[in-house]
Amino acid sequence: MNTINFDEPIRAVPLWLLRAYLEELGGTLEGDYAVRGTDWYAYLTQLHDYEVGSLRIGQVYIAFEGDTNALQPIRDGLTVKLQTRGGG
């Protein structure tokens, strides 16, 4: 198994919705801030709002760990969901 780690901030998506997306992609909730799938794990952290002038945008930090082959479809599926904002 080839294990990788990567992380990134996700903007304009609330934590509860990001958790739901990860569940739809095959994960199981482990508490309020963690989702585990087969050979992958994601930990979510609510960050302070991102501010540009008077505009405030919520953001969540997501850290992934797991097998490269397991994480690639999760990351691809999450990208589709985040781009469509309606859940893909």
UniProtKB/TrEMBL annotation:
Signal peptide segment: none
Pfam families xrefs: MoaD_arch (PF09189)
Domain Molybdopterin cofactor biosynthesis MoaD-related C-terminal intervals: 10-88
The organism's place on the tree of life at top rank: Bacteria
InterPro entries: MoadD_C, Mopterin_CF_MoaD-rel_C_sf
Protein's UniProt name: Molybdopterin cofactor biosynthesis MoaD-related C-terminal domain-containing protein
Organism listed in the record: Candidatus Chloroploca asiatica
